[in-house]
Amino acid sequence: MEVVDLTMPLCDGLPGYPGDPPVAIARVRSHETDGYQVTQVCLGSHSGTHLDAPRHFFRRGATLDQYPAARLVGPGVVVDCRPVSVGVPSLIDAPILAERLAPYTVPSNGFVLLWMEGALLAPDAAQSLLEAGAALVGTDGPSLDAPPYPVHRLFLGHGVLLAENLRGLDRLGPGPVTCAFLPLALPDADGAPVRAVAWR
Fold first, then answer.
1. What are phi and psi of 71, to 5 degrees?
2. How confident is the model at residue 144 (pLDDT cuts 50, 70, 90)?
């Protein structure tokens, strides 16, 4: 069994979403001067590969720590939603998504990982995933949609978690997978960096 790491490495200076803090990593203790090593890590709750919780968009929405660990591991499917023309972003609407998803089934309360390479998800496509029973929707992009974020609001308003900045979906290819998304255990978090893996 090959376990594919879907996580973007957190490195010093890694930019966040516009307006979010960048990642800052500094060595504060070293073997040479202290006899041991300690690194200081400063980042935002949506740095690198991360999960969005409903609190991200809703004042009284659930926080990430309210989701049990069992909710973050389970069956999923990778869907190839890459734009037909290379380098040309596109909008994945419900008919396109239905065509790309047709060979597969969304597991009940499962995960849908969208291999998009710059494409964005339209609200009608998001609605179809909601109706299909997706419990988590992921993307290899920094966001599933653009301001005013109707897709975020739809999913998060229904308790569906979002995983953003995934890596390595090309190593999995389309089809069924099992996934684990394990975030930092931050109380009252609107989101958190996550170690994401998947396997077949």
1. -75, -10
2. very high
Task: Render pLDDT for 69-97 as a digit per residue (tens, 0 to 9).
Answer: 999 999 999 999 998 776 666 899 999 99
Q: Hey, what are 8's tokens? A: 């973007």
In this prediction, residue 89 carries a pLDDT of 66
* 159: nearest Cα among 98, 120, 93, 109: 109
One-character DSSP codes across 142-176? S-SS-TT-HHHHHHHHTT-EEEES---HHHH-SEE
Please name the amino acid found at residue 72.
Answer: L
pLDDT of residue 126: 98
Give the pTM: 0.95
Whether 111 and 82 have beta carbons less than 8 Å apart is answered as no
Question: Is the CA virtual torsion 159, 134, 168, 120 positive or negative?
Answer: negative
Which residue type does 152 have?
H
Comparing 129 with 108, the larger pLDDT belongs to 129
| Closest to 183 (Cα-Cα) out of 58, 76, 47 | 47
Q: How many CA atoms lie within 13 A of 164 on its CB side?
A: 22
C-alpha 147/C-alpha 127 separation (Å) is 17
Q: Going from the N-terminus, what domains does the chain have, and what CATH number goes with each?
A: 45-199 (3.50.30.50)
- The set of residues, in sequence order, having a beta carbon less than 8 Å from that of 130 and lying 6+ positions away, is 154, 155, 158, 160
